[in-house]
């Protein structure tokens, strides 16, 4: 994380308290995270949402370290994980209590009904957004405080964010993003491009 380093270029705290996040394919490479991602509970959730061939396309362990855990600006997950038609759903598991003081999620209720505002594109010019971010009214955001073990499902067009963690306690969380590989096309200009197709949670 940016604030982990002092002016001299050295870490200001131990390495284990300096990591921002680990990703983006924990579900592919680590058996513990794969067991969770491919669990019956996750599959049942996406079956209830009508997904035909859901696949975890991204997984992240987010540390949100005490005192230095960085801000995540307002965004929509479909901006980064675009399919045609849109199909991204985010899953956010609180591994520790998430509060206003340690950087919990905030979201604009109903914003998922207003459409996707911009995309991140990877092309010959590198990785960039196709248009500037809209200006959001901070008064519209509501906090999503969570207890350890709580689980939130995030629509791909929902505008959400989190602030810096200026508290003395961390806010660990696990995030998964899932898209439907049946009837939905993964964009060739998404920033994530796999050499092999992702393993589906199930096929219906």
UniProtKB/TrEMBL annotation:
Name of this protein: Phytanoyl-CoA dioxygenase
A GO molecular-function annotation: metal ion binding
Keywords linked to the UniProt accession: Iron, Metal-binding
Cofactor: Fe cation
InterPro entries for this protein: Phytyl_CoA_dOase-like
Keyword Ribosomal protein on entry: no
PANTHER family named among the record's database cross-references: PHYTANOYL-COA DIOXYGENASE DOMAIN CONTAINING 1, PHYTANOYL-COA DIOXYGENASE DOMAIN-CONTAINING PROTEIN 1
